[in-house]
Amino acid sequence: MNWRTMQLTFLISFLIIQYGMCQKVEANPQTKAEKRSNTNPKAGKGKDLAPKAKVKSSPRTSTTDQTHLTQVVNKGKFQKVGDTLTVQAGDTLEMRCKGNPVQWTIPGYLQEDDEGRLKMIQHERYGTLTLTNTTGADTGDYICYPMYCEDKDCRKDYDKAIKVFIFFPDPQELFVPSSNYYEIIQLRTNWPTALPCQVTSPLAKVTLHREFPPAEIKVDGKEISFDVKKGFTIHRPKQYHAGSLYCVASLGNLRQSSTKYMLIYVHYPTAPPSPVIQTSSDSVTVGQNLQVTCTVVGEQDVLVDFNWEYPGQKIGRPLYTQDTVQTVQVDGQNRQRSQTLLLVDDIRQVDQGTYTCTAQNLEGSKSASTSVKVQSAGNTARPKKP
To answer: What is the pLDDT of residues 234-290, one digit of tens each?
Structure first.
């Protein structure tokens, strides 16, 4: 190979190498430009917001799958809460509920007047609840509801709500304060009744007492039970449960009594009454008297009210009734028969029509009707001559 050939070969190789390097140099600025566009802080925020904008404009949105509740114990430190939580009265309560949006439910006392101590803020990814200068009166249920949204219409997702009962132990108050000295509670037959003797500390020992005659009431867990978050529950109220009751809480050397509860027993029926209506005659002649009876047979000690609708009401004909209550035997059992008798004297043509009896008790009402025809005296059928 001569010198000229070597030069030519070298020149061609050099040009090939330069061409490849130029290709790489042209590719790198493009790659860096793409990287710069991806690492630009403002551009990054725009990308973060874009998916959320799409989520908001979609028919249905929900962040409930990621929702959970934590307590802020220190700055930057969080603790997942369970069914109950204890925060010493005077301390600050701060909780985070993950989700956007979320809604809080708090004890009624705070809903009425929080004195500026309560703050609820919705952040981008979570909602916060902060309560300062806490007291024993703040004790109760705190619930975080993730919201299910369709466009701008949002509602609570009750199935995925997170609930925590928070105690605020107060060395001076064992019971959650109440403005009522007496609270009236109705005892309903076979309907569980709660006596909300709510304590501020889960460590307090609570007993149930009767005021007159003074006595402690046995709590066996079946007829009457106690839950530190709810108070006492009478599961199947009876007549003997009625009266003035109160609770006593003890913790250390402190012993306090609760609000007094006046329990009034009302026998509630299991179903509305079923009236049966009868007439002394379906066809009455002008001038005769008519009696319409409405009868209800049911549970004993249940008050039944009767109401009548009759044709004579249209002209202001007065109502005359006789009501009776008797105990009768039905299939070997004592039952109560409540009855009302509608008396229509000196029948006239205007008394023809429908008579309706409505019977009502605490569970509802039912009606029964019958029709009465009135014939003129001249139309009365005469016996045929033999």
So the answer is: 998 988 999 999 999 999 999 999 999 999 998 888 899 999 999 999 899 999 999
Over range 197-223, report the average pLDDT.
94
For β-strands 243-251 and 231-234, DSSP reports them as unpaired
Q: What is the pLDDT of residue 66?
A: 52
The Cα 131–Cα 109 span in angstroms is: 13
H helices present in 90-235, as ranges? 108-112
- CA nearest neighbour of 305 among 242, 237, 365: 365
Provide the token pair at 152: 């701008």
Is residue 124 within 8 A of residue 86, CB to CB? The reply is no
Q: How confident is the model at residue 154 (pLDDT cuts 50, 70, 90)?
A: confident
Confidence of residue 380 (pLDDT cuts 50, 70, 90): low
pLDDT band at 84 (very low <50, low <70, confident <90, very high): very high
* Residues whose CB is less than 8 angstroms from the CB of residue 227 and which lie 6 or more positions away in sequence, other chains included: 233
* pLDDT score, position 33: 34
Q: How far apart are the first and last CA of the chain?
A: 162
Spatial contact of 279 and 291, defined as CB atoms under 8 Å apart: yes
The neighbour count for residue 250, using CB atoms within 10 Å, is 13
Q: Are 232 and 219 within 8 A, CB to CB?
A: yes
Tell me, what amino acid is at 219?
V
Q: Cα(187)–Cα(180) distance, rounded to whole angstroms? A: 19
Distance from C-alpha of 350 to C-alpha of 374, rounded to nearest angstrom? 8
Q: Comparing 32 with 285, which gets the higher pLDDT?
A: 285
- Rg of the chain over all Cα atoms, to the nearest angstrom: 40
User: Which residues are registered as beta bridge partners of 75?
Assistant: none
CA atoms within 13 A on the CB side of 268: 16
Pairing outcome for strands 93-98 and 69-74: antiparallel
**What gap in Å lies between CA 175 and CA 139, rounded to an integer?**
9
SS3 83: coil
Tokens 């025809």 correspond to: 373
